[in-house]
Design brief:
about 500 residues, alpha+beta, Serine Protease, Human Cytomegalovirus Protease, Chain A, phage-related protein like fold, 2 domains, ten-stranded mixed β-sheet, six-stranded mixed β-sheet, 10 helices, about 25% helix
Length: about 500
């Protein structure tokens, strides 16, 4: 939260009349006067920075949105600055505030404003040319010495008024709009306190940059993350990037891990370096009952344990503090993007190798991958074997290496027409195109993966193979002896063949 520091000023108070609600007026912001905010930034507002026709801002006490006292009913762009008139609600708390105003305890106001357009000169002074007034606060110490209340119009305060219907209606009208939980990391700096604003989650690069180089900004960032995602751990382990920050990096994997995407990554069970995945190896026997009240079929269910190992995938790079200071957060973003890309490729390569190795059932393909008949024969034979050997399952996917995908794309019928035309698929066997590494062929979802060795063709049912992953993301480590920082990217992944009968691999 950014706060102004300034000296108090005196005001002139004037009694109001009994027929009107309490009102105050004065100067909220002087033009072209520099004030210093709590983080050391110097700020000034140019004339015309505020839209005087904007939606009414709140009138509160001491920048506390829980202490609503009324609304800013009028804004005026004068030669001196932004002038205001505010109307107070007829509530006990507002009448107490009026008493403080008349006594001179409150003699000034401070603004809560959201800068929209601004420039910063070489001396570090920010000049705001467009801003939105969020709130106006009654204060004893203002942001600007010139921000004074020049008039107070109010009736004498009732020391112990009885609540009435009109009071309740006014209170409800002022407090009707809910106040969002405070999160203090806006895109543009907030001048004074803006409690109602959207929190924008920082990128992984911004988070690491702040963690390494900007302690105050990092503390605010953590507070904002905690407010926006209360269940997120932000400080228990220094250097660890919170999951809401690193998740978008993993979201970019989609499309870069064809094999993993085909099966979907399940949550990796916690605890230990291995976990047990039960598998039914002998099914129960079900048979027709001969007659009523006669014995039914007795069978034995056998369940074996598949022990699945968790595999760690990680890499690090070390950047000098000079590189980080002179090019952050851009260099950190480049590093993370590259690490994520390599992690995606490496983990998918592991999954592709595990799938190919685990597919032990084979069918001969033939000797001519340009012949549509040989493709059709292989696919149909593989489908029959899966149906027969895996208790009635049917194939769902066709996994191919890039060279076999190229053969598929080039298949033509006896008249020279493509089997997979990209336009007007009148006689198509599917919808393969060169613009996507996935498509349909022979009724199967085609998965093309560059991590398959050449001449790989596998027909399979996706239920027979499983992938598990725990996404860990990035971590930053200090190396003070060399004025450097190490950034690591890591995750845990397991891939396991559950039922080899559901996959048929081509042999040539």
């Amino acid at each position: 939260m950014i706060r102004f520091e300034a000296d108090p000023t005196l005001i002139t108070a004037q009694a109001g009349d009994a027929t009107q609600p309490a009102r105050i007026s004065g100067l909220a912001v002087p033009w072209d006067v520099v004030a210093t905010v709590s983080d050391g930034t110097s700020v000034q507002f140019a004339r015309g920075a505020f839209d005087v026709t904007q939606k009414a801002a709140k009138l509160i006490e001491n920048h506390d949105m829980s202490q609503l006292r009324g609304v800013v009913s009028t804004l005026t762009d004068s030669p001196q600055g932004l002038e205001f008139e505010a109307t107070l609600a007829d509530t006990r708390a507002s009448r107490d505030a009026v008493a403080l105003l008349q006594a001179g305890a409150y003699d000034s106001v401070s603004v809560g404003a959201h800068p929209i357009t601004f420039t910063t000169d070489p001396a570090g002074v920010m000049t705001v040319t467009e801003a939105r007034l969020v709130e106006l606060s009654l204060v004893a110490v203002p942001a600007y010495a010139e921000a004074v209340i020049t008039q107070v119009a109010a009736t004498a305060a009732d020391p112990d008024p009885e609540p009435d219907t009109e009071e309740q209606e006014m209170t409800d009208a002022v407090t009707a709009e809910p106040i969002a939980a405070e999160a203090t990391i806006p895109t543009n700096p907030i001048i004074y306190a803006e409690a109602k604003r959207a929190f924008v989650m920082p990128t992984a690069a911004e988070y690491i940059s702040a963690m390494l180089c900007h302690p105050a900004r990092f503390a605010d960032m953590q507070a904002g993350i905690q407010a926006a995602a209360p269940d997120t751990l932000v400080g228990d382990v220094p250097g660890i990037i919170p999951l809401p920050i690193v998740t978008p990096v993993y979201n970019n994997f989609r499309g870069n891990r064809p094999v993993i995407d085909a099966f979907g990554a399940r949550a990796l069970p916690g605890g230990g370096s291995t976990f047990i995945r039960p598998k039914v190896t002998t099914n129960l026997s079900i048979a027709e009952q001969a007659t009523e009240n006669s014995a039914v079929q007795i069978g034995t269910l056998v369940v074996d344990d598949i022990v699945v190992s968790k595999i760690s995938f990680a890499g690090t790079t070390t950047l000098s503090e000079q590189v980080i200071d002179w090019s952050q957060p851009e260099v950190i973003g480049v590093v993370l993007d590259d690490m994520a890309r390599i992690y995606a490729n490496t983990t998918d390569n592991y999954a592709a190798d595990t799938l190919k190795t685990g597919a032990t059932e084979t069918v001969a393909f033939g000797n001519d991958a340009t012949n549509p008949a040989q493709w059709a024969d292989f696919v149909s034979t593989a489908a029959q074997d899966i149906l027969t050997n895996s208790n009635g399952n049917l194939p769902t996917h066709l996994f191919v290496s890039p060279n076999m995908w190229g053969y598929l794309l080039g298949l033509v019928d006896t008249a020279g027409r493509p089997l997979f035309p990209q336009l007007g698929p009148m006689n198509a066997y599917g919808d393969l195109t060169v613009t996507e590494a996935m498509g349909m062929a022979f009724g199967l979802r085609v998965v093309v993966d560059r991590n398959f060795a050449a001449d790989t063709v596998i027909v399979g049912n996706a239920e027979g193979f499983e992938v598990y992953e725990q996404q860990k993301g990035a971590i930053a480590v200090d190396v003070p002896s060399t004025l450097s920082r190490t950034i690591a990217f890591r995750g845990y992944l397991s891939a396991v063949m559950i039922d080899a009968d559901k996959f048929i691999k081509a042999t040539f």
